[in-house]
Amino acid sequence: MPWIQLQIPADPDTADQLEDLLMEMGSDAVSMEDAADQPLYEPDPGTTPLWSQTTVTGLFQSDRNIEQLCSDIRDAWHQQTQQSLAEIDVTLVEDKDWERAWMDDFHPLQFGERLWIVPSWCDAPDPDAANLLLDPGLAFGTGTHPTTALCLQWLDGQDVAGKQITDYGCGSGILGLAALLLGADHVIGVDTDPQALEASRDNARRNGVEDRRLDLYLPGNDPDTRADVMLANILAQPLISLAPRLAELTLPGGHLVLSGILSHQAREVMAAYEPWFVMDEPEQKEDWIRLTGRRKDG
């Protein structure tokens, strides 16, 4: 049996209300997705952030009258908000095993020569490589976004054996765990979201490193341990604000790796770090930038 799929553009102020309305109208499932390729990083505790441009999608059984359904949705929305819905995109989608289809979209990803990100339902393509077991998730990063990919590629190209690593804004723990699998001695992960720290712990357990080389903290509780490698895949403005703190936590001669930066923001972020670091030229993937540098001796 096919399904009727309705897709409605929304913003953060209307998305939840549209979700409730579609459920009230009999939708069997409602989802939200990014409509403008805007990454979401770690949210503040207790918040549920949404993209500035969101698509709300509802699936309805195919025996519904499409014209009447859309009309009812428009009328109900107007009654609730005194506003009109500008657009409802209607398509018919085939019936299938949606969980299986979702899983089929994700495959092992290679970053450089040694590092793979492997979903739990897949076999590692190279059993002798550094295989990080990590399933796709909505909140904290799995390597598919250019910002994370740029950092993973940098890590793969470095000798991090025996090094102290700090992952500031650790999310799922993907960067710190990758560093451990590549031979790092110890990782400190810092994140504003307790849920992110729990995700990091779960992924560490799955990869067998939680009891020996990974410590996780909320900001303000993290120690003053200085790192050989400072990783921070966040966003440009937080990175600028954090520059003095990240410099303080990086050893003289240590590496700095920053991402979550759009191309037009690169120079401003570089300028914030140049008092402490000798910065390299930016590396770009799509619209995103990775910045690297070395901590000055003084």
TrEMBL record:
Gene3D superfamilies reported in the protein's UniProt record: Vaccinia Virus protein VP39
Principal location class: cytoplasm
InterPro entries, per database record: Ribosomal_L11_MeTrfase_PrmA (IPR050078), Ribosomal_PrmA_MeTrfase (IPR004498), SAM-dependent_MTases_sf (IPR029063)
A Gene Ontology molecular function term of the record: protein-lysine N-methyltransferase activity
Residues binding S-adenosyl-L-methionine, per UniProt: 148, 169, 191, 233
GO cellular component: cytosol; ribosome
GO biological process: methylation
Short name of one Pfam family: PrmA
Family: Belongs to the methyltransferase superfamily. PrmA family.
Function: Methylates ribosomal protein L11.
Record-linked NCBIfam families: prmA (TIGR00406)
Name this polypeptide is given: Ribosomal protein L11 methyltransferase
Record gene name: prmA
